[in-house]
Design brief:
Layout (H helix, E strand, L loop, with lengths): L12 E7 L4 E8 L27 E7 L6 E2 L5 E13 L10 H19 L7 H11 L4 E2 L6 H7 L7 E10 L7 H4 L2 E3 L18 E3 L2 H5 L1 H4 L4 E7 L5 E8 L6 E4 L3 H14 L3 E7 L5 E7 L13 H9 L8 H4 L9 H10 L9 E3 L2 E4 L2 E4 L7 E3 L1 H7 L2 H11 L1 H10 L21 H8 L5 H8 L9 H13 L2 E3 L4 E5 L5 E3 L5 E4 L4 H16 L16 E11 L2 E11 L6 E8 L8 H14 L2 H7 L7 E2 L23 H5 L20 E2 L4 H4 L72
Parallel strand pairs: 4-12
Antiparallel strand pairs: 1-2, 3-10, 4-5, 5-6, 5-7, 8-9, 10-11, 12-20, 13-14, 13-25, 15-18, 16-17, 19-22, 20-21, 23-24, 24-25, 26-27
């Protein structure tokens, strides 16, 4: 720790743990035990006996010490947002020994500012009036005169600091993964402007921050700690006679997300290398947890710390690629052919068609006065639902959509989550659109036509969805029974790492879909990837059977621009993971879901082949083992029947019937049931997850944040914090960017789909 942290005789030692090789602290905690106070041998008044002096330089004051902000972590406790220690060079007016004249003191201060600029190659300037005012009103507190400098830089300056300058330690927000999940995590900004007038009790020693966007804003109350207070008394000569803590700062709590850092990193790498603009979402079907939510392009959150310049923010706003726009959840794209499974599912479920029913599928069909085409030329013949999905045959869905009725399949779409927000803690989430008859009447000024229905049947026209909504619908189709409530937060912890809030896994609504309809759709989506004629073969993983659906849409007409989708779930027999990937084509670029989006999905999941295979292994089951030879009992005659016992009193009676063998005899030795666990569990003790590798030890009174997956997910768990209504969410500073003109809002008029 630095020795020269003295400002007005006040010293604060910040204890931190270093993160990996760059020694960035994971969590810092004020340690006010070592204050610059008189020794026990010296007589000094207690804080409770302090009085307000009214002569000379005498002052009594209580100064607020801001608390470190809590952590935002991935599902395994690795930091996505943390607090580290940084410094300002500060002007120490207590070292000024000249006349008590603000103008003279300001002249002295200017020489010190010049010395500070020379130390850090700075260009900070302050007027004489500013310095004179500070000397007059606040000379007892340090006055920062430099930009933020790092801890390593501060250490190198320690021995070079001239009299009248000191190093002022502060807390600084830090995002170790830079732009990773930036649209989800958000950033912080100054909470208040530091006062410049006369000192009041409770004035902060340095500036505190508050969340301005993303999780930082939504969970600001949980992440914000409780500040401490320090009392100082100066005598009439300006000498400090008391410096004593009244209350120690209490760090904020931690937010443990459901994101997997390794998966999120690689998803963003795939997007970065395989497309210029796009998004990728992965959901755990069983729990509803979002494992990946990536948008491309992104931006470095650290640019906003401590603040972003107006010029740089303007650059981000006008960038044609819209890096401030979180495509994964803020976009409204036409879902294109990823919507076709919904149409087929609704048609079979309500009896409009039977699973094996075929329809004649020429290259184009005239509906009203317009021709509606397939994505490729040629006569497809008579086609059933499975083949129509596998080859993404538009004419089949035009006919089936009209036969089923638009509101019939749109009703199923709403059950799958289309047309409504997911309920996740997100700012600016797109609602999408699964239009009702009233909406179409209001929007179009007429009732729904067969042409409208044909467009909606292939996921175009007025139909809009975000990649998050498409992934959610795939999770529901994979589940088959319910639409699970999605989760982005696993736990809320206090600063000791103790769980204070944890969500329960629960359903959002029942799907009420027939097993026959689901089986047919699953088969058709399997053939998309695994049949020789499937459009999504480039996503074949080899180690598991995937169900998928490609999609291609023309979503901008001027200039002509295409959109490629690939979504689905796996494995086929017991779905665990659902996903959606979208690829935005450049103007004039020819795109296709099978050519652009499917390979990104295949590349991503193949990278985690071993981990996924382990996760897909079914849980071990209990066996009955014979005590005589230690072998499993597999004969039906040797398995004893279960005895139903209702209460303890029943256990003491002698009338309980004993189990018998097939011949009526009572067995001499009744074998006991032994739970057999998997070999890995038997080989050693479970490993407790840690926050990061290579960290120096955090002080015992500030334990590391260790996410604990609660074994009991009962209804007694407190609910997760909910997102406040949008009208009460304070605007980010700088204000949220306007959605750029090239963002996906306007649906195409002419369908072109694969």
């Amino acid at each position: 720790m630095l020795r020269k942290l003295v400002f007005i005789g006040f010293s604060v030692t910040l204890c931190a743990s270093a993160q990996e090789t760059n020694e960035t602290p994971l969590l810092v905690k004020p340690n006010l035990a070592k204050l610059n106070t008189p020794t026990k041998e010296e007589e000094r008044p207690a804080a409770s006996n302090g009085s307000v002096f009214n002569e000379g330089l005498a002052r009594t004051m209580s100064i607020e010490i801001p608390a470190p902000r809590g952590l935002i972590l991935d599902r395994n406790g690795r930091p996505l947002a943390q607090t580290k220690m940084a410094y300002h060079i500060a002007l120490d007016f207590t070292a000024y020994n000249g006349p008590i004249d603000p103008k003279v003191a300001a002249t002295w201060a200017q020489t010190k500012i010049a010395q500070a600029n020379a130390l850090v190659n700075g260009k900070e300037t302050y007027s004489d009036a500013q310095l004179a005012s500070y000397y007059k009103n606040r000379r007892w507190l340090p006055r920062r005169i430099s930009k933020i400098i790092s801890e390593s830089k501060a250490k190198s300056l320690e021995s070079k600091m001239p009299e009248g300058l000191s190093l002022l330690p502060i807390y600084q927000r830090f995002y170790p993964e830079k732009g990773l999940a930036a649209h989800l995590i958000g950033y912080v900004g100054a909470k208040t402007v530091l006062p410049t007038g006369p000192i009041n009790d409770g004035d902060p020693l340095f500036q505190s921050v508050m969340g301005k966007s993303g999780f930082e804003q939504i969970f600001d109350q949980k992440l914000t700690g409780k500040p401490g207070l320090n009392k100082m008394i100066f005598d009439k000569n300006g000498e400090k006679i008391l410096n004593e803590p009244i209350k120690r700062p209490r760090p904020g709590g931690n937010v443990v997300t459901t994101l997997d850092l390794d998966w999120q990193r690689y998803a963003e790498q795939v997007l970065r290398e395989d497309c210029k603009r796009g998004a990728f979402v992965v959901i755990d079907i069983q729990s509803g947890e979002v494992l990946v939510m990536a948008s491309r392009p992104t931006f470095d959150l650290n640019e906003f710390i401590p603040y972003i310049t107006t010029e740089r923010y303007k650059e981000l706003q006008i960038d044609p690629s819209a890096p401030l726009f979180g495509r994964a959840f803020q976009s409204s794209y036409p879902p294109a052919s990823t919507f076709k499974p919904v149409v087929a599912l609704a048609a079979i479920n309500n009896g409009s068609i039977h699973p094996d029913q075929t329809f004649d599928c020429p290259y184009k069909i005239k509906i009203g006065r317009k021709w509606f085409h397939n994505h490729s030329e040629g006569y497809e013949g008579w086609v059933d639902a499975r083949r129509a999905l596998a080859k993404s045959i538009n004419p089949w869905f035009y006919q089936v959509g009209i036969k089923t009725g638009p509101q019939a399949f749109l009703s199923v779409a709403r059950r799958l989550g289309f047309g409504s927000k997911t309920g996740l803690p997100l700012i600016g989430e797109a609602v999408g659109n699964a239009p009702t008859a009233d909406y179409i009447m209001k929007k179009m000024g007429r009732s729904t036509t067969q042409g409208d229905t044909a467009n909606l049947s292939i996921g175009q026209g007025l139909m809009l969805a975000s990649p998050l909504q498409v992934a959610q619908s795939m999770a529901a189709i994979g589940n088959g029974n319910v639409l699970m409530e999605l989760q982005l937060v696993r736990q809320i912890q206090d600063f000791h790492g103790r769980v204070i809030e944890a969500p329960t896994f629960k359903k959002r609504n029942d799907l009420n879909l027939s097993p026959t309809a689901l089986e047919t759709i699953h088969d058709g989506m399997r053939d998309v990837v695994h049949a020789s004629y499937g459009t999504g073969q480039r996503a074949n993983l080899g180690f598991t059977t995937m169900c998928g659906k490609t999609g291609t849409a023309q979503w901008k007409d001027d200039p002509k621009q295409g959109l490629a989708w690939f979504s689905g779930f796996f494995p086929y027999d017991n779905p665990r993971y659902a996903f959606a990937a979208v690829y935005e084509g450049a103007p004039g670029e020819t795109v296709g879901g099978g050519r652009k989006a499917a390979p990104m999905v295949g590349r991503f999941f193949l990278n985690f082949k071993t981990e996924i295979e382990e996760n897909l292994i079914p849980a071990a089951r209990a066996m009955i083992i014979s005590e005589e030879d230690g072998q499993p009992i597999i004969s039906g005659d040797m398995i004893p029947k279960a005895i139903v016992v209702e209460d303890e009193e029943a256990l003491s009676t002698s009338t309980i019937p004993l189990p018998t063998l097939g011949n009526g005899e009572i067995p001499v030795d009744i074998p006991r049931a032994i739970i057999v666990e998997d070999e890995e569990a038997l080989s050693g003790n479970p490993t407790i997850p840690t926050t990061s590798q290579g960290l120096t030890e955090i002080p015992a009174d500030v334990p590391k944040a260790i996410p604990v997956i609660p074994a009991d997910r009962s209804a007694n768990k407190p609910p997760l914090p909910t997102v406040p209504d949008e009208e009460v969410i304070p605007e980010a500073i700088p204000v949220k960017p306007e959605i750029p003109g090239d963002t996906p809002r306007k649906p195409p008029e002419i369908p072109s789909d694969r």
